[in-house]
Amino acid sequence: INANPFTKVATIKQTVQQHWCNFSPSRQSPPVPVHQQRLMFNNTILNDSETLLESGILDNVTITLLVTSNDKMDIFVRNSDGRSRTYQVQPTDTVLSLKKKIEAVERIHSNQYYLVFGGRTLEDKYTLQHYNIKEHSHIDMNLRLRGGGICQSKEANVSLCEMTRFYQN
């Protein structure tokens, strides 16, 4: 693969996935999904978010591709207190199944929070791969606001009217 020093490791993995048949000895192997790839250089697993230069990779080097045998991946869910927990999931898991795992650990019912990834609210019926959630992705858990709407009591309406008159005079 030809790449410049500013190419991210994640981009290299995408290239491997897209062009796997060119790299595969049999040329008939199915593509290796990005979340199953581990790229290694000098006995160190490379970080997807780093560039080749940041990983210490210069000209004409060999990077080793390790392929994990299962589809399980670790993701991080950050709760409203800012603490992150690791959950082992599969890309084909639904958001609802992830919420059930969170519910068991956090002891909070899934109707009391919603999940956000990449600025998008995750819907229960879709899979994690639908949202492009990959190994080591960070998902935010946000609590739903509880309570009613505007207070409809007569006292509240009177007080508001009296305050409005007071400020107008």
UniProtKB/TrEMBL annotation:
The Ubiquitin-like domain, residue ranges: 1-72, 73-148
Pfam families, A to Z: ubiquitin (PF00240)
Lineage, opening ranks: Eukaryota, Metazoa, Chordata, Craniata, Vertebrata
SMART domains (UniProt xref): UBQ
Protein name: Ubiquitin-like protein ISG15
Source species of the chain: Callorhinchus milii
A GO CC term assigned to this protein in UniProt: cytosol
GO biological process, one term: proteasome-mediated ubiquitin-dependent protein catabolic process
GO molecular function terms noted in the UniProt entry: polyubiquitin modification-dependent protein binding; proteasome binding; ubiquitin binding
